[in-house]
Design goal:
alpha/beta, Rossmann fold, 11 helices, 40% helix
Length: 295
């Protein structure tokens, strides 16, 4: 396993220092602001040709729009960072009837990555980085009702299942495509004040922080905000620095592979259900059914 001098306070620029990405091509979704913009900036500064998407040119909740984006792409793709996302939204359905958080955070990226598979394979050593969250510790994928058609809608339960889905997607994508030379990993960027929190009021946000710190386990560090450059670091590390065998099919945080933690009172590490290969296969089949395509 690679030993690195990086941690929670490392910035994306520090991770990429000294690297030459000339000739590499990257796509960063949600690249117009926040950690997506910083990820794109750092990759470009290292010499990569970067396409940073926004909702205006790639609405991940619109399957037809994802297809149009894929059709416009030509040539190899070395790095795909599935960064865009929404969090704790009011109950919202896409025109296809999908719950918005699952549709945006998982299904759109599922369709995008699989649509770009040939471009990734052509790069001979490509990486897919899926931005997940510690929020996955709050719940599994509701396979019997991912759209909350029968369960009462809860914005945090919907967010949690979408972030667990991000990890399961990385697990199954990596298993299916590592022989093609394409590896996938999921990452937790940390807590950063960005547009992701736009659906939360200041009191709600502070209440969440207070609860996390009150409930944290002895020995666990107190909750603290990361800066945007720090928040982009793990995506850059997993995408261009860490060895493929180290991070492939894994969940990473603070520029390291996260440890397995199943204590329900802990908010660190990764839960076993998010790495479960059977759950990952089931999610893949469910996702194919929902987007109406087989990959």
């Amino acid at each position: 396993m690679t030993t690195v001098p990086f941690g929670a306070t490392t910035t994306a620029a520090e991770v990429a220092a000294g690297l030459d990405l000339t000739g590499k091509r990257a796509i960063v979704t949600g690249g117009g602001s926040g950690i997506g913009a910083e990820t794109a900036r750092v990759l470009a500064a290292a010499g990569a040709e970067v396409t940073a998407t926004t909702r205006a040119d790639l609405d991940l909740a619109d399957p037809a729009g994802v297809d149009r984006f894929v059709r416009r792409w030509s040539g190899p793709l070395h790095i795909l960072v599935n960064n865009a996302g929404v969090m704790a939204t009011p109950e919202t359905r896409t025109p296809e009837g999908r719950e918005l958080q699952f549709a945006t955070n998982h299904l759109g990226h599922f369709q995008l990555a699989l649509g770009l598979h040939d471009a990734l394979a052509a790069a001979e050593g490509a990486r897919v980085v899926v931005v997940s969250s510690v929020g996955h510790v709050n719940g599994e994928v509701l396979f019997d009702d991912v759209d909350f058609a029968r369960h009462p809608y809860d914005p945090w339960a919907a967010y949690s299942q979408s972030k667990t889905a991000n990890i399961l997607f990385a697990v199954e994508f990596d298993r299916r495509h590592k022989d093609d030379g394409v590896r996938a990993t999921a990452v937790h960027p940390g807590a950063i004040r960005t547009e992701l929190t736009r659906h939360m009021g200041a009191d709600e946000l502070q209440g969440l922080i207070d609860r996390i710190n009150t409930e944290r386990k002895p020995g666990e560090p107190a909750f603290g905000w990361k800066t945007v450059p720090q928040g982009a670091a793990t995506s850059v590390w997993a995408g261009i620095v860490a060895s493929a065998d180290e991070v492939g099919g894994r969940y990473c945080e603070d520029c390291h592979v996260a440890r397995l933690v199943n204590d329900p009172e802990s908010r660190s590490g990764v839960r076993s259900y998010a790495l479960d290969p059977d759950h990952a296969k089931a999610l893949w089949a469910k996702s194919e059914e929902m987007v109406g395509e087989r990959f």
